[in-house]
Amino acid sequence: MNLQDTLLPPHAEMVRAMLERDTAYEGVFFTAVKTTGIFCRPSCTARKPKPENVEFFAHADEAMSAGYRACLRCKPLDAAAIAPDWIQALLKTVDAEPDLRWTDALLLEQGIEPLKLRRWFKQHFGMTFHAYLRTRRLGIALGGIKDGISIDNAAFDSGYESLSGFRDAFVKSFHITPGRAALSEPLLFTRLTTPLGPMLAMAERRGLVLLEFLDRPALTKELEELQQRYGYTVAPGHNAHLQQIETELAEYFAGNLTTFNVPLHMPGSAFAARVWAELQKIPYGETRSYGGIATALGSPGASRAVGLANGQNRLAIVIPCHRVIGADGSLTGYGGGQPRKAFLLRLEKAAVQVSLPLAF
To answer: Active site annotated at which positions (predicted)?
Structure first.
């Protein structure tokens, strides 16, 4: 998808940012040079191409899918794995001072352009910064109610002066009344940036429940199932599991982590759970066929059922369904797209080769 079709800055502004090496646009878009076949960060110090020879992409994986190679100087794949410094600093402040009211004037005092911030949050979180703050405060209230805090105290702690205003905002965000929230399980979510594009991570107190690429076609259906079938109430926020998967993903993409240790919670059928457990047994850097997994489960004729359970996996990369290929060695389907599947397999194969001892 080209950036002209998104809520990102207009073409002229991206050209300006590229030519001026504007670091404020780090993580917002990538520049790809048609004449060299290379894509870069906006602030790359390499000689700038003519604007007519450049196209822009929202994510690194889109540039790779279009046939571009990562620049060896600015290393855009490394840049894609983290939010810009100014965003990271802002989010740390939000975590440290959740009650702080962020006005446009306060943002400007911190050197942050409100419109630029709005665009970044719309792209990466699907909501404005101020909407994110409101929903986050309500998420904290949701957790408090679940832990036994009275609705009155949760409302006032969230900055609402009236219970009716709090209730209306709560229902609008979570589609459930504060009274019923005490019976539901909060499912906190955050957005993670990776070299293959943004991912949505969701976790509850027992462990990580979902990790998916935001453009996965089945994501909407998966979220509906978690809410309607398993009774989760979804809210933005952080917990230890989300912090752990963010750290472990960064190590994985750096080629330094072969086994994920983040606790998992995987609602699903008994058969799906058996398939997912078998997927976790596939060694890093290796692959298995659907038939091979079916045989390992004692049901050699269940390749199709294995494929269905494989597609129902909500924990991309962590439950390595990307390591399952066709009997003929073809990549076959992958919810995140075959270019990503190929990338993950190449990453693991390269890391294994690097770690092998030299033969004499």
So the answer is: 40, 321
Rounded CA-CA distance 18/12 in Å is 10
- Cα separation, 78 vs 253, whole angstroms: 9
Cβ atoms of residues 61 and 197 within 8 Å: yes
Whole-number Å distance between alpha carbons of 248 and 256: 9
Which architecture, in CATH terms, is 247-350?
Orthogonal Bundle (1.10)
Give me the amino acid identity at 240: A
130 is in an annotated binding site: no
Question: What average pLDDT is seen over the chain?
Answer: 83
- The answer to whether the annotation marks 71 as part of a ligand binding site is yes
Residue 266 above 80 pLDDT? yes
| Two tokens, residue 287 | 């692959």
Full-prediction pTM beyond 0.70? no
- CA dist 7 and 219 (Å) reads 21
Q: Which amino acids are annotated catalytic?
A: 40, 321
One fold for both 85-246 and 247-350? yes
Give Cα 41 distance to the centre of its chain.
20
40 is in an annotated binding site: yes
Per residue in 72-104, pLDDT tens?
Answer: 888 776 655 556 778 878 888 887 787 788 899
CATH topology classification for 3-80: DNA Methylphosphotriester Repair Domain (3.40.10)
Q: Which of 49-58, 86-95, 350-359 has the lowest mean pLDDT?
A: 350-359
The arrangement of strands across the sheet holding 199-204 comes to 207-213, 199-204, 185-192, 232-236
Distance CA 159, CA 134 (A): 10
Q: Which residues contact 5 (CB under 8 A, 6 or more apart)?
A: none
